[in-house]
Specification:
The structure holds two protein chains of two kinds. In chain A, 11% of the residues lie in helices and 43% in strands. By secondary structure, chain A is mainly beta. The radius of gyration of chain B is 20 Å and the shape is globular. Chain B is mainly α. In chain B, helix 3 runs antiparallel to helix 9 and helix 5 packs antiparallel against helix 6. Chain B has one domain. Classes of the chains: A mainly beta, B mainly alpha. Chain A: Pathway: Protein modification; protein ubiquitination.
Chain lengths: 415, 260
Amino acid sequence: MSICRYLSFSIFCFVIQFAMAETINICATGCDFQSIQVAIDSAKSGDTLFIKKGVYKEFDITIYKKSLYISGETGTVIDVENKGYGFRVEATDISLKNITIKNILMSYTKEYAAVFLFKSYDFLLENITIEGAFFGILVQKSKNGKISNNVISGEGTSEANSGNAIHLWHSEHIKIENNKVFMMRDGIYLEFGNFCEINNNLSENNMRYGLHFMFSNNNSYTANVFNKNGAGVAVMFSKQIQMTRNTFKNNWGPTSYGLLLKEINDADIKHNIFENNTIGVNADGTNRINFTENNFFNNGYAVKVLGACYTNTYTKNNFLYNTFNLSYSGSLNSNTFSENYWSNYSGYDLNKDGIGDVPYRPVKLYSYLVNKTPEAIVLLRSLFIDIVDFSEKVSPVFTPENLIDDKPLMKKVIW
Amino acid sequence: MFKILKYSFYDLARSRWSYVYFLFYLLLSSVLLFLNNDLSKAIITLMNVVLILVPLIGTIFGVMYYYNSQEFTTLLLAQPIKRSNVFLGQYLGVACSLSISLILGLGIPFMLYGLLQSTAIFNFLILLVVATFLTFIFSALAYNIALSNQNKIKGFGYAILLWLFMAVIYDGIVLISLVLLQEYPLEGLSLTAMLVNPIDLARTLIILKLDISALLGYTGAVFKSFFGTSQGFFMSFLLLFVWVILPIIRIFVVSRKKDF
C-alpha cells in the first residue's frame, strides 16, 4: 500500500512539473524575450527555450543550476564578436540544439569556448555549428552527456593560438558521435576522461592531433575518420582503450603519425585502416596491445616500435606496399608477429595450407641501419641498398634473429 | 664539328641499338603507367630504373661506339679537320642520340596518359633533365676511358667498373662511413657525399620533389633547406654541368696529344 502511495505521489509530482514547464520564445521582435540571457535568467528549471532565427550578439550566456532545453532553428546565430565564451553552463539535465555560434575570443591564458560545461550532468549538445572557434565544446568535471552531430571549425594558424574542438577534462560516460571537426588544434581531446565512447566522427586538417587521449582510461573509439591531421590519433598514458574500424589517412609530413601510442597498456586495435601516413603506428612504451586484422597500406613506415614495448601481438594484419613494414629498436621483448599478410613476402607454400613455409622477416637491414644512423636515410632507393637488403634476406646477420613472422599468410586477410 | 656530329647522329639513328633503346623505354613507361595508374608512383618506379640503366647504357654505348668507329676515326684524322672537332662531334652524336631515344621513349607514353594536365609534370621534367645529364656525363666518361685504352677488353672492363663504382660501391662506402662516424653530426657529410656523385645527386633531386621525402626526417629537412632554395638547386645543376664539362675537356686534351 505504501509503495502504491509513493508511486502515485511521484507520478503526481512528475505531472505537476510537466504542467508547469513552459516554452519560452526568443526573437528580435514580438516574442517573450529579445535576449537569450534575460530569457534564461527568468526561466524555471524544466522550461524549453526556443530561439527563433536571427543573429544574437551576446556572449558569456550563463546557465547556473537550472535544467533548460534550449533549441534554435536554421539561421539561429549567436555572434560572440570575440568578446568571451558563447554559453557557460553549470547545470544538470540540459540540452542545447540547432544553434550556430560564431567568433569566440582567442586568448593565450584562458580557454574561451563556444560551449563551456562545468559540473554538468545528463547533457545533450546536438546540431551545434561552431565557426571561428577558439575552443569549441569544453566539458569539465561532467558526467553522462552526449555530444552529437556538431560541426566545429576554427581559424587558428598555429598550435599556440588555437584550441581544441571538443575538449573533455575530468569527465566520464560521455558519448561523442557524428561530429565533424576541422582546422583546430586537436579535434577531440580527452584529459582524465573515462568510460567515453567516440564514434563516427570526422576529424581533419587539425594542426596537432585528430583525437588525443591523456590519462584517460576505459574509452573506446569506433568508425571515426582521421584525415590530414598533424598526427591522426595520439593515445598517451592511458589504459584499456578499444580502437575499432577507424581510418587513419594522409597524415603525411616530417613529423606525422597515423596513430601515436605512448605509455599505453591493454588496448585492442582491430579492423582499422592506416593509409598514406608517414608512420602508420608509432609505438613507444606500449604493453599488452593486440593489433588484429588491420590494414596498413602505402605508409612510409607501417609500424615503428621504439623502446619499452612488451607483450604486444600483431596478428592477421595486412601490410601492403609500405616503404618499410617495420622499424624496430631493441630486442624482441616477447612481442609476437604471427599470421600477417606481407605484400613483399616472396616465400612459397608447398602444402597449400595458406601459410608460407619460409618465415618472413619484417625488419630489413636498411631499416635497421636507418634506426641506428638516421642520416643513412639519404640512400633511400639506391641500388646498393636493394642489394644489401636482398643479401640480408638470404642470410640474416644483423637484423634481430627471432624477429620473424613464422606463419606469414599467402593471401590477404579479408575482414 | 657539326658535320661530324650530324654524321654520327644519323649513323646511330640508323642503327638498331637506338631503336631498341627507344622501344625499351617506350615499353617500360607504358607498362608502368598501365600497372600503376598513378603518375607520381610511376615516376618513382621509373626513377629507380632510370638511375641504374641510363648511366650503364651511356657508358657501354659510349665505349662501344668509340671502338666500332675507330677505323673511320683514323680515316677522318687523315683529313684536314681539327682533332677536337672529330672527337667532340662523335661524342655529341652518341650523347644526343641516346638522350633523344630516352626523352621520346619516356615522354610519349606519359604525354598520351595526360601528363600535361597533371601536377606531376614538374617532377617528370626534372626526371628527364636529370636523365639527360646522366647520359651526357656517362658517355663522356666512357669516351675518356676508350681514348685512354687501346685494348678493347680493358676499356670495357674499366667502363663497367666505373658504372659499378658510381651506382653501387660509392653508396656502400657512404653507408659504411655514416655508420662508422655516427657519433658525429653527419648532415654536412651526407649532403656533400650526395652532391659529389652524379647518380646520387640525381636521385636526391628527384626524391626531394616527391611525397616520399617526408620519410627523410631530420636529415631530409636539412637537405630540403639546401635543395629547396634556388641557390641549392642552381648549385646542384652546376655540379651536374661540371661533371659534363670536365670529361669533355679531358677529351680535348687527350685527343690533341694522342698518337694514332
